[in-house]
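Re-run with default settings, no changes from the original entry. Doing this only to confirm the output is reproducible before filing.
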Amino acid sequence: MKKRKDVYPFEVNAWAIPAPVSRRGALIADLHGQDPGPVLTALRAAAPELIFVAGDLLECRKSRGRAHAAEKNENAYAFLMGAAALAPTFYAPGNHEAALGDAERRRISHTGAILLENRAVASQGFLIGGITSRPDREFLERFSRMIGYKILLCHHPEYYESLLRPLDIQLILAGHAHGGQFRARGRGIYAPGQGILPPYTGGFYQGRLLVSRGLANNLCLPRINNKKELLILHFGPDQGKAASFQ
């Protein structure tokens, strides 16, 4: 993994990923309705050919009487519109979009981004699928049987062990863990869905699961040794020797 010069309020980290076609992608996760300006600036500089959004962009959930975060959601729509103007943008919802409704789906469609709720599309030599926080197992089985290089947007890295490991999917892109909030010796301390000393908080695991540390901090606790990050993905048949795996 190579780190670029830190000129943003987050790190821009690059991963080399073996694939049958050469493309440049970007992974966005856990923006949580923050100001999209710095991220869009970084994306313009990186010039990705595909943009992947692995959940928790909008605030659409019904729990504990949380009010609809209208201002944050306007930031989210602005991000999607800006991203889709740069490159094809694929968006799978996370737990904060658990109550995504038809009004939100229409707004997402108008941005030009492609919403993937337990479905898949073909683009630029890849099959790109996305699941929700309540994944459709029948869709996953169908997706895994498709012929081609398959990329799955799955917000929850904890689904890897329980659901995804046996499936024939070449690359899984996730977020949700926020880097483990506090990091020590290269690993996170706690993550939702994984608990204390979680196995998957940030990095490339087993050559298949790439987890972003995310681009926001929506907790009152600070992030310690755990900078936010934007990931740039360099796909290609010549990337095998360059790929860095954990």
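The chain has one domain: 2-236. Confidence is low (pLDDT under 50) at residues 241-246.
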